[in-house]
Amino acid sequence: MAPIKVHGIAMSTATQRVLATLFEKELEFELVPVDMKAGEHKKEPFLSLNPFGQIPAFEDGDLKLFESRAITKYITHQYADKGAELVCGDTKQKAMIGVAIEVEAHQFDPSASKLGWELVVKQMFGMVTDKAVVEEHEAKLATVLDIYEKRLAQSKYLTCDCFTLADLHHLPTIQRLLATEAKKLFDSRPHVSAWIADITARPAWCKVLALQKH
User: Fold this and answer.
1) Where does this one sit in the cell (predicted)?
2) Which fold has domain 4-84?
């Protein structure tokens, strides 16, 4: 049995972030499905893994973690000698990767996730999309993407010419938005568009997408 367990579902963007990292590191793991409809994430034994009742939760031997970005950082450092490097360069370069990781979490993701909710999740559940909310967050996301466009004119990826966790963390929400009207925000920025084409074609990410079809 694989010592690494990911408790979550393949359709969850936060779970996907962890799965992509594990695939990039070429690690064996077990995806333990959580029945969200039955509310398994809101009761024991799941709450012993994440007291906030949110997926994913993660186990590596006796270590238990939650919060997807914290999990990806652990995987990257604990298994530094495996698979893709994901964090590269000297201390200053690693600091810049850290900045880009924070930017994804605090500048990019809030609007991207809100758009995903309005344009994808609501439609899946037959709810009505709030067009005013969509417009508000498209404008906010456009501001972030303008900054990315300038950055990506200088290097292939967000912090340097190698793929890092900073790029990987964007994948789940970007993939969700590619099937929506918000895709125009990516397409209208050539460097952003090229970056997205590159990172969404990575073999590890393709494996994450394949899991969603099971």
Assistant:
1) Cytoplasm, Cytosol
2) Glutaredoxin (3.40.30)
